[in-house]
Amino acid sequence: MCGIVGYVGDQNACDIIIDGLKKLEYRGYDSSGIALCKDGKLEVHKYKGRISNLEDAISEKNLSSSIGIGHTRWATHGAPSDVNAHPHTNLNKTIAVVHNGIIENFVELKEWLIKDHDIVFNSETDTEVIAHLISVFYEGDLTDAVYKAVEKMRGAYALGVVCSKEPDKLVAVRKDSPLVVGLGEGCNFIASDIPALLKHVRKIYLIENNETVVLTKNKVTLYNAERQEVKRDVFHVTWDADAAEKEGYDHFMLKEIYEQPKGIFETLTRRLNEKDEINLDGISMTKEDIERFNKVYIVACGTAYHAGMVGKFIIEKLAKVPVEIDVASEFRYRDPFVDDKTLFIAVSQSGETLDTLAALREAKRKGARILSIVNVVGSSVARESDDVFYTWAGPEIAVASTKAYTTQLVCMYLIALYMGRTKDCLPVEQYNHYVSELKDIPDKIKQILNQEKNILNMAKELYKQEQVFFIGRGPDVGVSYEGSLKLKEISYINSFAIAAGELKHGTIALIEQDTLVIALATQDALFEKMLSNIQEVKARGAYVVGLAKENNKEIERQSDKVIYIPECMDEITPLLSVIPLQILAYHIAKLRGCDIDKPKNLAKSVTVE
Ligand code: M6R
């Protein structure tokens, strides 16, 4: 969590940094700040609340400087406040630091700094320790002092550091938190993520773990932990800067919902040749590997985990291999049965989720083959995997994940189909049928998007509800979890998802007059069972919104309201049924006046445990 930006060059650092921070607000938005170096002094401004608070506060000050760092925060140590906001400085305000991550041994370091160096702390943050540590080690060379400070630190960090005594230099370090460097003409940049830099540069260095970067306006030098210079290939960003803009939509979430046909088309067609065979270009997994795997483990968090729930269903069905699925924060602290016959699939939009990354490392340590499904090219999960199956969703800015989920599902289908064919357990006719159905999905999603007005009208009737249950069977269970998460995270309605057959084992006690139940009944094979479950909740007074394929009109007799999705194979429905749930959540949240793209207490990229 948290976003950092830094600039050194001939333009006004203040404007560039503020603009970059706005592109990173998805990483955290409870406070923000900036430190600029001018006339041998550091000027620091930081405020609780959104970046607009910082902007308003400095708007009349006409700040200008050729070097600076900025930060947008998601609080870990210390509540959101002006004092706890970054940047943090040393006592005589010559060194300023912005930090994304957590310093695990900060209490111990703080005690040492207080006892041996008489440091008086200002904030409750772990980051302030870093500013004082660098100051203690500073003997005229900022890079050297940063190295010495980092040697004392344990945890995860991406740091940006400036010093008023070396006003032409910016030093940055990365360990486990993302950091990129933008290479300009007569200027250079650091940031937590590429969108912050796209207005200015297309040439990027992706910084590796334990690397330190020294930037001046004309030079960028990378060093490893042993202080040796390292060379890095330039990564050229090809996607459009507009991809990270709202383009007339009220919210990024709505824009991203509408981008799903395109994202799915891209993710699919980049892996299909003209004969509709799946190509694994860039993936080194062989037929022998696939035949050797006796288990697949899917590990992820949040929405990506929900994609994994559907993935388990699909891979088991098409590739005939047992699939286990776990949330990353649980996986890493168990002792799971993973070995060199395990295919470990890490799913992550950002590729920076710390729990997923730690689980991946644990699986790797046990000998598993790591295949990740990732959206952000060059992210940590992508770099630490044996192979990467990229989703081609484009940048996802809204905290509530939409297009990442559906493109992750497409990857699951492709992996399952590829494994099924390779192992010869999926007949070619069935394979062709699946591929043809998948290719129809973008158009079918467009048909659902055309129903937005109807779903808005439904939202107008439902938005005052304070409790919602999502139920489903088979692959609809994973979609129910995802629909429920979408609703709760952006509208703050208490929503709950459960396998429909489980209701009667306890949860049905909560159903009373007018309780809203959203019942997913997209599976032909399970349709009648779902109708029984709907009757059970109706009998207790529930208000039911049924979701079914358009030919299953029987649902109208059992439900108060119905949402239809176009006809398709049972196995493919998760790609369609989630779309109306995303739209419904969006409109309910909007009607409730919620801040949709930046829900409270959340951040897009969860880089803490
Ligand atoms: O970047 P990741 O896919 O690893 O993120 C995992 C979760 O934090 C994420 O899916 C989260 O649940 C969604 N933003 C919720 O919409």
Rounded radius of gyration (Å): 25 Å
Q: Quick one: CATH superfamily of the largest domain?
A: Aminohydrolase, N-terminal nucleophile (Ntn) domain
Fraction of residues in H or I helices: 25-40%
Number of strands: 25
Task: State the helix count.
Answer: 19
What is the residue-averaged pLDDT?
94
- What is the domain tally? 3
Global structural class: alpha/beta
- N→C terminal distance: 10 Å
Across the major sheet, the strand order is 3-2-4-1-10-9-11-15
Query: Main β-sheet, in a few words?
Result: 8 strands, antiparallel
Fraction of residues in β-strands: 15-25%
CATH architecture of the largest domain: 4-Layer Sandwich
Inertia-based shape: globular
Bound molecules: 5-amino-5-deoxy-1-O-phosphono-D-mannitol
* Low-pLDDT residue intervals, each spanning 5 or more residues: none
Return the CATH topology of the largest domain.
Answer: Glutamine Phosphoribosylpyrophosphate, subunit 1, domain 1
Q: CATH class of the largest domain, please? A: Alpha Beta
Oligomer: single chain
